[in-house]
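Usage

Read records sequentially. Each one opens with the input sequence:
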Amino acid sequence: MFKKIVLPAVLTGALALSGCGSSQPTQTAVFNPQTSNLPGALSQPGGGVLFSVGGKSSGTAAGPATAIQVNAYLWRASLDVLSFMPLVSADPFGGVIITDWYSPQAAPDERFKADAYILSREMSANAVQVTVFHQIQQNGQWVDAPVDPATANGLEDRILARAADLQAEAQNTRG
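and closes with the structure output:
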């Protein structure tokens, strides 16, 4: 009974605190004519944009054949919202973000990981899907545990809200 009450409270608290962090979000920029002026885009002299994660560019220009096929605002927002968890993999071309396990300080015998999928170039609620995994430690072993569906829905809502903020910022900088 105690775990059923504490788990949602701990995860909700961790999610709330993640929005208050002072760490810089991961910088990702991929050539996309609609979003090339997003904050953090890295331009090169020839007018192309270099792909960058964490400030390290790949050194190759992304052209129309390799342009991102997912909504760049949702992509960037997903990285921002999930930044409190260690990142395992981020594929901007496929729109997949996979985190590593994260244990909240308040509950070291529990851990969570998340997979985020950006499914479209359109900014809509159907364009982002988050799957959350939960494990608890029992007898020194990590055992799968159920996840409240509201947890994934809450992350999706935060991603959509952050994407809307990024889009508004980009529109304000255009003048």
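Summary fields computed downstream for this record:
- DSSP finds three helices and eight strands in the chain.
- The chain has one domain: 2-174.
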